[in-house]
Write a structure and sequence with these properties.
By secondary structure, the chain is an alpha/beta fold. Among the domains are: 222 residues, P-loop containing nucleotide triphosphate hydrolases (Rossmann fold, 3-Layer(aba) Sandwich); 47 residues. The strands form 3 sheets. It has a 5-stranded mixed β-sheet with strand order 4-3-2-1-11. Strands 5-9-10 form a 3-stranded parallel β-sheet. It is extended and about 150 Å long.
């Protein structure tokens, strides 16, 4: 697999290719191996894992971001930090803020800063007066100047908002009129089709259209039931006939076999055949018993075959053997009883030995004790490490919130207002139980905590925070590309348009790449960003020799 790209490095465009192999996978335009460090500095000096976390976004990450807003309970510092994915110069900025704060309370520094702030206030008041004059001129030049009193910015904003809703309402009305006309046309076609079916089924057209439709449906269902019943009966008849054929074949085979058996035993009925078979089975059983008894006698006497046994039995006195058996029987019983007693004694002694135990048991217990102590020590150390890490993380979140809240809150408010199409006017901070929490300010004047928003609104808020975090990063560093992978599958066209508008603003500071397989999103992108560059990877791949293509 080969992935190629044309990258602007060190003031010139260069071609690079990444191939699939363990080492030296980066090649230049002439297929020569390059070390990753040769272009890493020109690409921002960011590792691949950090880039994937900070400057790429897909639908899974977007969903997890919404869940993080819910889990954080709107904690301001945590949301700002998670959206930006961390900055390496955080400690330096914190130290600089502390130095500036200490200098403010010094006599010379305090008077100097107060003078600067007084001049800044005077300049701000002058700028405000100039803006009011320009606003009056602007309102007087249009129909707003016809009012007895010039409206303020909030009033004009409300008027523009109403006009925007009016255009949407007109568009909705036109859509409803078109749908009504199509529905009336479909109703007329439906009525004609119903009357045509009534003529075919000989149904009187005196009832209403609904009743006629119901009657036709009942006729169709009845016909379907009749057809289904006919098919079931046909299948059942075919099975019966097949069973009949199989039974006839079986009967013929049985007749042939019965004829063979009656001929073999020279009889006329099956009862007589059964009697002969029983006699044959008994004869076979008797033969087997005789063979087993003969083998047992051969083994007991140690003879070679049954003939030798018969010769020995012929020469033995029966009464003498019976006398020896009577003498040996009580001796055998006594020996058997002694054997049972000895086995019982052995079992008792073995149980006593097992109950005593030995040094190995003590050693095993000691080993288990040491193992448990080591596990306790290891887990206690791990617990202390985790607690220290949690404390450090909480402190870092508070510091990050204090440093970035102004710029990121402003950008996040603007982005959230844009992507929600004015449903929310922005975000703000509000004191909470454990610190400041993030709230969303509604257009109707209300507010909601970030963790109380709907699922879709949380997705939009997380996207707004990511956009603000990107602006915060590139404000003090070299621009880094931002990659979004089909995150608008759940967006309607209007919110997709606003999301592309945010990406267009980001593109003014760095490259933004959006990957999608939805054709309608490309049309929205062209509408919002006329200068967008679109790459159809399928058409490029069909004419390229590479196995994969990277879009710029």
């Amino acid at each position: 697999m080969r992935l190629g790209a044309n990258v602007h490095v060190a003031g010139q465009n260069r071609n690079f290719v990444r191939i699939k192999r363990p080492q030296n996978s980066l090649l230049d335009g002439e297929e020569r191996s390059l070390a990753d460090t040769e272009i890493r500095a020109d690409l921002g000096g960011i590792e691949r894992e950090a880039f994937s976390t900070m400057f790429s976004l897909d639908d899974i990450t977007l969903e997890k971001g919404g869940e993080n807003i819910l889990a954080s309970k709107g904690d301001l510092g945590q949301l700002l930090f998670s959206a930006s994915a961390g900055l390496s110069d955080l400690s330096r900025q914190l130290l600089a803020n502390r130095v500036n704060a200490d200098g403010f309370y010094k006599t010379r520094g305090r008077s100097s800063q107060l003078s600067e702030r007084t001049r800044a206030m005077t300049d701000a008041q002058k700028a405000a007066d100039e803006w009011d004059a320009k606003w009056s001129d602007l309102c007087s030049a249009c129909w707003l100047g016809e009012a007895p009193v010039l409206p303020d910015v909030d009033a004009v904003s409300g008027i523009l908002h109403v006009l925007e809703k009016l255009a949407s309402a007109i568009e909705t009305r036109d859509g409803l009129i078109d749908r009504i006309e199509k529905m009336e046309k479909d109703n007329a076609l439906f009525e004609a089709s119903v009357f045509e079916l009534c003529d075919s089924l000989e149904i009187r057209k005196t009832a209403s259209l609904t009743e006629l439709t119901r009657t036709i449906g009942d006729r169709i269902k009845a016909a379907e039931r009749g057809l289904e019943q006919q098919e079931n009966l046909s299948r059942d008849l075919a099975r019966r006939r097949e069973d009949e054929r199989e039974l006839l074949v079986t009967k013929e085979i049985l007749d042939v076999q019965i004829a063979k058996m009656t001929g073999y035993f020279c009889c006329a009925t099956l009862d007589e055949v059964e009697a002969f078979i029983d006699l044959s089975s008994k004869r076979q059983a008797l033969r087997s018993s005789i063979t087993e008894l003969e083998q047992e006698l051969v083994e007991i006497t140690g003879a070679n075959h049954i003939g030798d046994v018969e010769e020995k039995l012929a020469s033995v006195n029966r009464e003498e053997l019976e006398g020896q058996l009577a003498l040996l029987t009580p001796i055998l019983e006594d020996q058997d009883r002694k054997c049972h007693d000895v086995f019982h004694e052995r079992s008792t002694v073995q149980k006593a030995i097992d109950a005593i135990g030995g040094d190995s048991v003590v050693a095993e217990i000691e080993e288990q004790r040491r193992t448990i102590l080591l596990e306790i020590e290891e887990r206690a150390g791990r617990y202390l490490e985790l607690r220290a890490g949690i404390t450090a993380a909480e402190q870092a979140l508070r510091l990050y919130r204090d440093r970035h809240r102004s710029g990121m809150m402003t950008r996040a408010s603007d982005a959230f207002k844009t992507i929600s199409r004015g449903a929310y006017t922005g975000v703000a901070a509000q004191p909470g139980k454990d610190g400041e929490v993030l709230i969303a300010v509604s257009a109707n004047g209300g507010s909601k905590a970030a963790d109380e928003l709907s699922k879709g609104a949380r997705f939009q808020l997380y996207l707004a925070l990511r956009v603000a975090g990107y602006h915060e990063f590139v404000a003090n560093r070299a621009p880094i590309p931002f990659i979004a992978d089909d995150i608008m599958e759940t967006f309607d066209d209007f919110r997709a348009e606003e999301a592309f508008r945010l990406f267009a603003e980001m593109a003014g500071h760095g490259q933004v790449i959006y990957l999608t397989h939805h054709q309608h999103l490309t049309e929205i992108a062209r509408k919002v960003c006329p200068g967008v560059r679109l790459h159809d990877l399928e058409s490029i791949q069909s004419t390229a020799t590479l196995d994969g293509i990277a879009a710029e």
